[in-house]
Design a protein that fits this description.
The chain is an alpha+beta fold and 758 residues long. It folds into four domains: 1-33 and 129-290 and 449-460 and 517-577, FAD/NAD(P)-binding domain (3-Layer(bba) Sandwich); 37-123, Immunoglobulins (Immunoglobulin-like, Sandwich); 332-439, no CATH class; 607-753, no CATH class. It is 27% helix and 17% strand. The protein is built from 18 helices and 29 strands. The strands form nine sheets. Strands 1, 9, 10, 11, 12, 13, 14 and 27 form an eight-stranded mixed beta sheet that branches. Strand 4 (78-82) and strand 5 (85-89) form a beta hairpin. Helix 3 (143-154) runs parallel beside helix 11 (548-567), helix 13 (604-612) packs across helix 18 (738-753) and helix 14 (629-645) runs parallel beside helix 15. The relative contact order is 0.10.
């Protein structure tokens, strides 16, 4: 996507008017893809097959009417069946084209290769009409774009998902197969669903944090195909943007194959691309340069850094400049013992570019980049696939220049493979023969680690990450868990330098897990738009926000914000963070993190919601420990403060120890706290009780009945048993666990926290 022009500004005739947009919606432009009954059965059973099979088969859609079937590079014959029609394939046949198909339709293929049966599924491209209208337009089926489209579709919203390649998932399906995450327990939300599907695909013993590109692509596509509200446009480039009165209205598409064009109108647009071309064309301000070093940005600007000693080395001026960290193509290779997999010498090959690279056994790929099925991710730097310095113009370049830069990076990556094969004698190491069958084993996308960074209504800087425990974001929509990381901006020539090139650092000692505020994906200047990849951050902070798990979390949040904005007729910036958080927690996304609280923890939603608002703090929550009287008093003070003034610093809870509080005493404190804000919480005398173990007319019954009147009864917050043969039980003298206390407080507090005017 390059230099997307602003097609129509206010007052220009080509602008698509609101009336026209409404007429498009009224004309039922929310087209849904058709599917065969077999596909519907698979979807109903949540077992729709992937576009790949373990026997090496892959289905790749190429147009609205054609799907190519790729078979293993060598076989003794195959049988392919679709809709009862069988085709026998001669030995050694690599590709079969199935044509004459219907647009936007999922097709199932039964394929037997050398007696090994498998079923694969693939969806044809949608037909391109002159104009189409959708609730939401997502530009870029990147990690965040795929998460955004799936999330918004699951909330009942129609989506046009637009992608330049024919793949889904961004770099996850283009070579970045080693997950950048330190603790698996912090996997959550959309990424956790993806990770779990990967783990199921590979079977026992796999944790889903390492995956082949073909598997990531197939799983991402299957998640898209399972949502009938998503129209997935592939091989499409955004060639223009429609804007009126500071609000984006839609985009102009151009097919990279047919060159046909189409206007795609959206009530909201999500720019999920790395380059943020749509956002920039719509008027969103952005930054590209590196910032100057300041106390808030201690590793910013020109820097030489020793990762091993955590030292900033001489020559580090900290000056701001225009340099950008290196991009790369991440090749996927495999060792084929006894075979010669050598490639021809690539263009611009110079052995001097690689002579300082380590041996294969000491390389990053061999020691850290292992993927399932004997494959490796080639991500060596320095003296590998990175080539700093040639990409400074890339973020704002036109399509031709971007292609030229991408080709040089491809030659550089292939040169490293050629060096391994020739100089280091690794002739059996070659491109994996079952990856990217339609592009000769080469990734479809350049790894653009960073380009534009848009300016949002809030921004994250390095210190926001370093001091994440002190700088709490009450409007958190995601967590991150990987060190701030930048590749070099200038090529390293001296192997004894003690650093990895100017601009490269891996700030493992300075990066705790952290929360991400909602404002980093909401542009400051343009309405109707969310930017989920090129988010609002400084260069250093972006070094951790650019990791694929975080991008999926931010895409999930973007889709959720979009759906809520449409539901409440709001702009994205107007949707209260608490409502977004509440919806994300239903999707098992994490807003904060405790080592002992996970998505399956009882009262997970309440614990997360209250913790992000400062009710609880620390690295552990201790959900099954009993709440003390001292802790309860602090929580009630925080509840009153929150409902009067909004979220604040964490409650000053006393240290561990104290007397466990009983349920009646806890109910008294909760009712007393709420009564300070809402007179309806003042206890009333009761003549009957819903609880068999509480006598009418007692204070205990009055407190319990006040909770019950507000739909807070023991069935919703207390652990079992909550009922006997005589009716509900309150267990007035029993202590209450911290998890149960969180649930009761959340039930009492949720309505106030979610008020639209907060």
């Amino acid at each position: 996507m390059t230099h997307v022009p602003l097609l129509v500004e206010k007052g220009k005739k080509r602008f698509v008017s609101n009336l026209h947009v409404l007429s498009l919606f009224a004309a039922a432009a929310f087209l849904l893809p058709s599917s065969t009954s077999a596909v519907e059965d698979f979807m109903a059973n949540q077992s729709i097959p992937l576009s790949i099979a373990p026997n090496g088969v892959e289905a790749v859609a190429v147009s609205p009417t054609a799907i190519d079937i790729y078979l293993p590079t060598s076989h003794n014959g195959a049988i392919i069946e679709r809709d009862g029609v069988c085709i026998s394939v001669a030995p050694g046949t690599r590709k079969i084209s199935d044509t004459g198909l219907s647009p936007a339709t999922v097709y199932l293929y039964s394929i037997i290769v050398e007696g090994d049966p498998a079923t694969v599924a693939e969806q044809t491209f949608p037909a391109l009409s002159e104009t189409g209208a959708y609730d939401v337009v997502v530009v870029g089926a990147t990690a965040s774009g795929t998460a955004a489209a799936v999330s918004v579709a699951r909330l009942g919203v129609s989506v046009a998902l637009i992608e330049e390649t024919n793949r889904a998932g961004g770099m996850a399906s283009n070579g970045l197969g080693v997950t950048d995450m330190r603790q698996k327990g912090r996997s959550n939300g959309f990424f956790e669903e993806f990770r779990a599907r990967v783990a199921r695909y590979y079977g026992r013993g796999e944790n889903g944090l390492r995956y082949e590109p073909r598997v990531a692509n197939a799983i991402m596509k299957s998640m898209i195909y399972a949502e009938p509200r998503i129209i997935f446009f592939r091989r499409m480039r955004t060639s223009g943007v429609y804007v009126r009165d500071g609000r984006i209205q839609g985009v102009r598409l151009k097919s990279l194959d047919s060159l046909d064009e189409s206007d795609v109108i959206g009530r909201l647009v999500i720019d999920a691309t790395v380059e943020a071309d749509v956002a920039a064309a719509a008027g969103v301000k952005f930054r590209i340069p590196r910032e100057v070093r300041t106390p808030e940005e201690p590793h910013a600007g020109v820097i030489y850094y020793d990762n091993n000693t955590d030292e900033i080395l001489p020559g580090s001026t900290g000056e701001a400049d225009h340099r950008i960290q290196s991009y790369a193509y991440l090749l996927t290779v495999k060792d084929y013992p006894g075979e010669d997999r050598s490639i021809p010498e690539p263009a611009e090959y110079d052995v001097k570019n690689y002579i300082y690279s380590p041996s294969w056994e000491e390389s990053w790929a061999f020691n850290h980049g292992r993927l399932p099925n004997g494959k490796y991710e080639l991500n060596q730097h320095p003296w590998g696939g990175d080539l700093p310095g040639i990409n400074y113009d890339y973020p704002q370049a036109d399509a031709a220049l971007r292609q030229e830069i991408a080709e040089r990076y491809l030659w550089r990556a292939l040169g490293y493979l050629y060096y391994l094969q020739t100089t280091l004698g690794m002739k059996s190491l070659g491109l994996a023969d079952d990856e990217y069958p339609d592009t000769g084993g080469l990734p479809h996308s350049l790894y653009v680690r960073e380009a534009r960074r848009m300016i949002g209504i809030s921004e994250m800087n390095e210190s926001d990450v370093i001091y994440a425990r002190e700088r709490r974001f009450h409007d958190s929509i995601a967590i991150g868990d990987y060190p701030m990381d930048s590749h070099a901006t200038q090529e390293l020539r001296d192997p004894t330098a003690g650093h990895r090139g100017e601009g490269e650092w891996w700030l493992v000692r300075h990066t705790p897990w952290y929360r991400v505020p909602i404002g980093v994906i909401i542009p400051r200047d343009v309405d109707g738009l969310i930017v989920s990849t090129a988010v609002s951050a400084t260069h250093v902070a972006y070094g951790t926000l650019r990791m694929e798990p975080v991008r999926m979390s931010l895409g999930q949040a973007a889709g959720t914000i979009a759906a809520l904005a449409l539901r409440y007729s709001m702009e994205p910036r107007e949707v209260p963070a608490a409502i977004v958080q509440d919806r994300l927690l239903l999707q098992k996304a994490y807003l904060t993190w405790f080592a002992d609280v996970h998505k399956s923890t009882r009262h997970f939603r309440a614990i997360q919601f209250l913790a992000v608002r400062g009710f609880f703090d620390g690295e552990e929550f201790r959900p099954e420990e009993y709440l003390t009287r001292e802790e309860a008093g602090g929580l009630m003070e925080h509840l009153v403060q929150d409902e009067k003034s909004g979220p604040s610093a964490p409650a000053a809870l006393p240290p561990d120890g104290g007397t466990p509080i009983g349920r009646v005493e806890f109910a008294r404190l909760l009712v007393a706290a709420k009564s300070q804000i809402d007179p309806d919480w003042i206890p009333r005398s009761v003549e009957s009780s819903h609880y068999a173990d509480l006598s009418p007319g007692t204070q205990a019954a009055a407190y319990a009945e006040t909770l019950y009147r507000h739909r807070i009864d023991t069935r919703g917050w207390a652990g079992p048993p909550s009922r006997s043969a005589d009716g509900l039980l309150f267990h007035p003298d029993s202590p209450i666990t911290r998890a149960d206390a969180a649930q009761a407080i959340w039930l009492a507090h949720r309505a106030a926290a979610l008020r639209l005017n907060r």
